[in-house]
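Re: beginner question about structure tokens

> Can someone show what the tokenized structure looks like for a real chain? I only ever see the sequence side.

Sure, here's an example I had lying around. Input first:
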Amino acid sequence: MSGEQKAKAKGEQAKGKLKETAGRLTGNKRLTAEGRAEQAKGDARQAKEKIKDVFRH
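And the corresponding structure tokens:
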């Protein structure tokens, strides 16, 4: 399950980066903010999984 969560985190980070880039290109501040928030969510999920891995080993 951990691998699945890590993949989900990477997906959120990539999706957020795309949204942020699209928002910047179009001048859409809302889309840029959504992208940043999604990246942060992915970063948090990834950090949580890394902490879990440390305590497993």
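Each token stands for a local structural state, so reading them left to right follows the chain. The chain is about 95% helix and 0% strand.
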